[in-house]
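Usage

Read records sequentially. Each one opens with the input sequence:
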Amino acid sequence: MSGIPADAPGHVTLARAVAALAESPVGGRPYAELIVRGTLRVGLYAPRGEDTQQPHDQDEVYVVMSGRGTFRNGPASHPFQPGDVLFVAAGVPHRFEDFSDDFYVWVVFYGPPGGEGAG
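and closes with the structure output:
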């Protein structure tokens, strides 16, 4: 895990996250995890070319910081742009498609394995 400065454990700038991402891509996919607390994990994700991620065992939220493309969430597909917030329930296949080269997205994983359920 790439960390954040010990003197600011609750604050991560996009610039700091991009630098951490450059230091340590995970599994060939550029992802840097920056905040961890209980079930909460916050990271920056920036695939290039193709997004090959698999479904996750926690619910997740994406916040698009830069770039545009299409987001496939289960059977649904829709365009995204900076400022958009995207939710994916645990276990649902999803991926970013046809995204621009400047694509960066915050990823927030939270809750128990299997997700929190419908609410």
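Summary fields computed downstream for this record:
- The chain has one domain: 14-110.
- Helices lie at 14-23.
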